[in-house]
Amino acid sequence: MESRVENPLGQINISANAIANIVTNATLRCPGVVGMSSKSFTEEIANLLRVESPSKGVEINISGDKVDVNVYIIVKYGTSIPELAETIASSIKTDLEKYTGLTVSSINVSVVGIS
Description:
This protein is α+β, with helices and mostly antiparallel strands. The chain has one domain: Cation efflux protein, cytoplasmic domain (Alpha-Beta Plaits), CATH 3.30.70.1350. It is 36% helix and 38% strand. Strands 3, 4, 5 and 6 form a four-stranded mixed sheet that branches. Strands 1-2 form a two-stranded antiparallel sheet. α1 crosses α3. The longest helix has 20 residues. It is elongated and about 50 Å long.
């Protein structure tokens, strides 16, 4: 899955993995995020058996020039989750639109653990 952006000089292809890396970096910059996590325990066990993916904890759905993002995070104990989720969503939206030119349709932040 990738995004194609047209410009006067031709076409730019952006892979879902590149988009996921942007999302991961934007998320991990937010104070209160301890790490990223897969959405299920089974996926976590599977991840232990192979090299960790830079897009771990991120799901991307691209439709034309629009992107939907789901992130799964581990939060530092004592952090206000609603405020953190808003900060993460804002950071992701800003970075994706700045670096890719895509329109962000939705960002869903799921807290899967507290550390």
